[in-house]
Amino acid sequence: MPLEKRLTSELPPRCRVLVAGWAGPGYSARIAADYLVEEFRGELLAEIYSYHFPAHVTVSKEGFVEPVKCSLFKCKVEGDWLLVFSGDEEPLTPEGQFELAKEALEIATKLGVREVYIFDAVPGTRENSGEIKVACSDGALLEQLKEMGFKPLKAHRVIGVLGMLAGLASERRLRTTCLVTGTYTYFTPSGRMVADSRAAKALLEAFCKLTGLQLDLSRISREVKLTDSFIAELEAEKRRLLKVALKHEGGPSYVR
User: What is the CATH number of domain 3-216?
Assistant: First the structure.
């Protein structure tokens, strides 16, 4: 079997919306998906394992070994149910990506999902971090979103599990919207990526605007301020070190 599925809680009666966000540039799509689960106190519905995942395990902060997997959460929102599909790693093959997207969509459609939202991100600059563009399953929906002020995404590919999910959902005539944010990938001197919470917040704002859901964004707003402050401190330190280095380069040299 290419997939293994483990249900961890009871299926909700019906769901209207499926949201998917994967780890990627700036982690922004995954941060946005996780934020929905946290704010709406989502419950783990299913874990899906694929033989096409990379051959390693993850060790948690507590020291536990965890296999690579993706997760499907159910969130009760304003009397309705919302599904959130997320993962840290992509299957290594197109076949694995297709099977994973198909399995998540099978669960979603059995629960009555009619709308699918894909959170995605593309590398950009610090200036366009959080700039949202959209791609849709049909022309009428795209025109509706343009009237709401969204710019269409052009000449782009949504790849991997998210791309497969968008394509399969569109084939099944589900109302499918890809929300794609520009994200700024910043690395610390030690090589660690700084998560782009600003782009994640933009995805959440766009999602709420489209669905009418009420979501408290105060926590992620604080994270944006902390991230901006952290990057500003790093940039100031880089400038200071560069100034010191240039000063030493311009000093006297001696030949012995």
Answer: 3.40.50.10900
